[in-house]
Amino acid sequence: MTKQQGKAAQAAYMYAKARVQFIEAQQKEIEREYIRTHEIINEDGTTPSSLYCIDDDALFEQACDDCGALTEAAGLDAAYSEAQSELRRTENILIAYGLSLAPAGLRATLEQAAKTNASVRAKLVDLAFRLDISTVR
Questions:
Q1: Residues 6 or more apart whose Cβ sits within 8 Å of residue 57
Q2: Of 30, 34, 37, 101, whose CB has the highest number of CB atoms within 10 Å?
Q3: What is the CA radius of gyration of the chain?
């Protein structure tokens, strides 16, 4: 990976991550608005901060169904799926770059772990950002 490709891969990853976070924030806002609009209050008198904080199971199920319909109608479900796919694609590029720099003996172990272990994937992405791309030819 050249210096230019490395910087482009890092930028693409950060853009994809920001897009996922933006869509998640929009979904969260729909949930908060639903809770506010329907004046949902828990038994202890508190207003739930999210759907998963609703104590009443039946009310929770109804709120999930309704919010699911609202996010789908707003196009957020499809956008989120697309954004997650792009994030995974760009993450894979950074992981491949990080793995390419690992010693051969360690690389095979890391490659296997990166397929199933989110923690290893996150550390490889972090490594790809920490590496000095300017030294790459």
A1: none
A2: 30
A3: 20
User: Among all chains, which residue has been given the structure tokens 């760009």?
Assistant: 90
CA pair distance 17, 39, nearest whole angstrom = 33
- Under a CB-based contact definition with an 8 Å cutoff, are residues 38 and 70 in contact? no
Amino acid at 108: A
Q: Per residue in 37-88, pLDDT tens?
A: 999 999 999 999 999 999 999 999 999 999 999 999 999 999 999 999 999 9
Q: Tokens representing 42?
A: 């828990």
Write the burial class of residue 91 (CB in 10 Å: 0-12 exposed, 13-18 middle, 19+ buried). Answer: buried
Interval 79-134: pLDDT, tens: 999 999 999 999 999 999 888 878 888 899 999 999 999 999 999 999 888 876 66
Number of neighbouring beta carbons within 10 Å of residue 78: 11
99 touches 114 (CB < 8 A): yes
- The one-letter code for the residue type at 57 is D
